[in-house]
Specification:
six-stranded antiparallel β-barrel; Thrombin, subunit H; disordered N terminus; 9% helix; mainly beta; 12 strands; 3 helices; six-stranded antiparallel barrel
Length: 287
């Protein structure tokens, strides 16, 4: 009864990290630079207006399906939908010459912000964007796995907390005024809730700080920075070290790095909302 439309892409396995040799590209960067197409679920959220017709990068995001993009609520809660564009398949934000495959841009038909999102405290910092026309999966454009309820990715045991990473085009150092052009990655380890809360209490947040249960923390040698808000925190599955589940969304951090964990909106804590919302959006999709 439910015939897929002619334009629908074939289902793509989620969360597969690509190797550079998939794209015949010889770009080698520093350790922190990703390869073209390595993280095919990475999405750029751009804001288009009179002062910036090409669009300004405002946040990262990730691809859950051909028509659903996941980002942080704080990225989109104050912006008119008509000014937003989402771009999949992007690698070098300032320069397309090195890219063998082109990116795809889409406009937004709906913004679904978590019903319990707190602007002041950033609890439940999660939003889903519906695109007006589906993305077409290509070697460099594919979805990430997400911990939807009652799937093989929903159990905490499904992923390895020591092999995680975040990606983004953000400022590499706190206070830098420029975005990095090539997509960067930082290797991270999940930090348990109490340890994270204790570390954060040593900062200007103070000894009384309480870390809400809707957050998950991760620590690395570097840390993601401003400009990476909304981007994915992913961890490798235990069954396949090359397959990744998104466990968080970059939400906030105190400065960058310096032994203080970055704080992410937890997809595990928000799995029920996420699953229900995605199911609803999928049933009522416009194409």
């Amino acid at each position: 009864p439910n015939q897929p439309s002619a334009t629908a892409s074939p289902p793509e396995e989620c969360g597969i990290r690509k190797a550079g040799d998939d794209f015949d590209l010889k770009i080698t960067g520093e350790d922190s630079e990703t390869l073209f197409g390595e993280f095919p679920w990475m999405v750029a959220v751009l804001r288009i207006n009179a002062s910036s017709t090409n669009g300004t990068l405002i946040c990262g995001a990730s691809l859950l399906s051909p028509f659903i993009v996941l980002t942080a609520a704080h990225c989109v809660n104050k912006i008119d939908m008509s000014e937003l564009r989402v771009r999949a398949g992007e690698y070098n934000i300032g320069n397309d010459h090195e890219e063998t495959l082109t990116h795809q841009d889409r406009t937004i038909s709906a913004i679904h912000i978590h019903s319990n999102f707190s602007v002041r405290k950033l609890y439940n910092d999660v939003a889903l964007l519906s695109v007006n026309e589906p993305f077409h999966y290509e070697p460099h454009i594919a979805p990430v796995c997400a911990p939807f309820v009652n799937t093989e990715y929903s159990a905490k045991e499904a992923f390895n907390p020591r092999t995680c990473l975040a990606t983004g085009w953000g400022k590499t150092n706190f206070g830098d005024r420029v975005f990095s052009h090539k997509l960067k990655k930082v290797d991270l380890t999940i930090v348990n809730h109490n340890d994270c809360q204790n570390k954060l209490r040593t900062t200007r947040l103070g000894a009384g700080f309480r870390l809400d249960s809707t957050f998950i923390c991760a620590l690395g040698l570097g840390d993601t920075c401003q400009g990476d808000g909304g981007g994915p925190l992913v961890c490798a599955t235990k069954s396949n070290p090359n397959k990744y589940i998104q466990v968080g969304i970059v939400s906030w951090g105190i400065g960058c790095g310096k032994d203080i964990p970055g704080v992410y909106a937890s997809l595990l804590a928000n799995a029920e909302w996420l699953t229900a919302e995605v199911n609803t959006m999928t049933v009522f999709r416009p194409f």
